Amino acid sequence: MLIFILRRLAQSVAVLLAVGLVAFTLFRYVGDPINAMVGQDTSIQEREELRERLGLNDPAPVQFAHFIINSVQGKFGLSYRTSEPVGRMILERLPATMELAFVAALFSLCVGVPMGVWTGLYPRHWSSRVLQAASLIGVSLPTFLIGILLILVFAVILGVLPSFGRGDTVAFGWWTSGFFTFSGLKALILPSITLGLFQLTLIMRLVRSEMLEVMRTDYIKFARARGLTNRAVNFGHALKNTLVPVITIAGLQLGGIIAFAIVTETVFSWPGMGQLFVQSVQFADIPVMAAYLLLVAFFFVAINLAVDLLYYAVDPRLRGGMATQAARGH
Amino acid sequence: MKADIRRWALAGVAALALSLGAAPAVDAKTFKWANAGDVSSMDPYYRNETFLLAFLENIYEPLMRRDESLGLEPALAMKWGQISPTTWFFDLRSGVKFHDGSPFTAADVVFSLNRASSGGSNMKGYFTSVKAIRKVNDLRVEVDTAYPDPLLASKWAQILIMSKAWAEKNNATVAADATKNEETFATRNAMGTGPFMLKERRAGEKTILVPNPSWWDKPKHNLTEVIFTPVTNPATRVAALKAGDIDMMYEVPPQDTDNLKKDPNIKVIEGPETRIVYLGFDHERKELLESNIKGKNPFQDKRVREAFYRSIDVEAIKRTVMRGQSFPTALMVAPGINGYVKDLDKRPSLLKPEEAKKLLAEAGYPNGFEVGMDCPNDRYVNDEKICQAVVAMLARIGVKVNLLAQTRSKYFTKILRKADFGPGDTSFYMLGWSPAATYDVHNVFESLLQTPNKDTKKGSFNVSGYSNKKLDELADKMEGESDKAKRDAMIREATKLYTEDYAYIPLHQQAVIWAARKNITLHQPADNRFPLRFVQVK
Fold it and tell me: B59-179: which CATH number, 3.30.70.890, 3.30.930.10, 1.10.10.10, 3.90.76.10?
């Protein structure tokens, strides 16, 4: 067990390093941050001096090594764009992204699972066909278009929801939350629908196919033969058995939701990490981009690690295999 | 345990109820506005950039400020002028207080000028002529310059004055430097004398200002609160304005202007900007970098430049690409800038393609030639589309232009002059320039038209390498000339020189386009600054 965890940890560190190196190689091509940092009147010498002092003339591997050494010590440097500490900038944006991702994931689960159950139980019902068709739209429409359409309908035409921003927030230490104010809750609705829609359709389709599968099994027929109520059969026996893959996928998709929040945050001007990243790309703000990419890579790796460990706990065969190996060793 | 949960739930409900009840009654005098990007810092010397300076001018004030028609008027200085050609004086306004109530004196001015000219400050360019700054008494500051600098007051309208005591208390006496690993207090906080005070700053999210109750000037605004939010996505910005979530948007996307004009609740405010967008040639190299002509440089022949100039139809670009939102020009400076010569602002007539081809043939290119062109695609309004139109117009006279349009950070690295003042890697390019540093034409001559010189640092943005001895002399002389009539004559002569040489192809001034709800009145100056002190909410 310990060896298994250690091996996974070592792999995770390797992945993080690889992401960092790829990112740094890419930064060579995003352009020169100097022009964004100085005014049009700044002389050529001053530009060159600044470039030298920032270490931009060093080769990519050297820059990368500096970055890794500083990151390990928790020093992410100052943003080229605003001269604020990068660590704090990201920390300030983290709550907004996390709350949005959480609500979006919750929305996709709470709506996706019942829709999947319904379409799985009554695959030929007209409403199931409508839901199926609608879910296709959810998969195929790009996120920014959905976002803009929602803004158009609910903010511009109906005027019931805000068109952008996070509303008022309440601070708990460094964490700011929009869950405790009316405007904060209202502001969450449109972005979380936009962000969660794709996951919702994915979960709905997954639950539907699993339900169709499970409903054909013998133990469901047996349960019906025993005269159990529909509710007990559908939810107590059928649904429970479909949920294992759903939880796995939903868990893995959480990383995706956090990463894909970039588009949603840009559309809704949501003050989260994704928007920070987009602003940083426009200014070739390398310290912020590097820290953000590493953080997202860290989320992915951590979630994957957690899922792997869960498998280990859930699937006895994995444990058995290890045990036999260990036994053979003796 | 259960009781615990119940207590938390109750607390939650109570908090929700409180926040609902506490939601303030809609106050008509709150003004909400948005821009594509955020102000990058609250430090007034952090960037020499229009938006940052314009925003901070609401909180901090300069010695002399720009009035509604861009002239200088007294702000923190009541009177200023030259005692001798190399000594300036500034008599300060008495009784002015900073937002924390501390008095404003000459010590603050000296401190601010020193801070702006050292450390990580981006405003050092405004101090090249300065030798010494001294406080004479609490209300008078004198400045010695190394050579006569008649534009000093004009330049220093950009330098905002900070509180010395506040900066010293908070360890912010040096301007922020991105290369150091520490932040300064002034990045997120501000202490000035201006019409508005910084109430809350959340970088990238929102910045809240409230009026300064003890401002020395009589407010022309009626605001009680100003909320500024960056909204990156142009479509969202337009939607927010239409929905009434914001009262005003700065930088309207050109494609949305027509749509906004149709909305009865919204007005679009537009005017010419002081920036000139122009095309430049490589005059400098013996052989063009990107051309099929080897051994010589076609652009060194005036006839070729004339054929190019007179084949580009700026009115057509205005009509089609710019949707009417441009102001064609023949000069490298715009009206409103000191040194704009109105009667010389006339473009020569367009040539028919045969006539232009004949000119090219006379120059030795009967079959035209091929040349590379550099263009940004995210710097000026419709920049890439303008270049595409130019490519099509030049194709008609037999010149094949290979366009490379790219993002600004890559584009500028390619075309700008190198650290050793060597020419940029371009043959034919687009650039925009506004003499925002001085609002005077000398800045244009010095930066774009004088022969590039590593030692004097003249011509540092003369990417083209255009060189004219006579113009160089005139530009040097006008720099130190205090007699207005003599100076105007020099400007006139120098302007004639570069226009008759077809040194550049000036295209147009782009339009400054803002939009606001109908109940807002505001003032839009040509330098694209947005002074909150003129905003009225009805």
Answer: 3.90.76.10
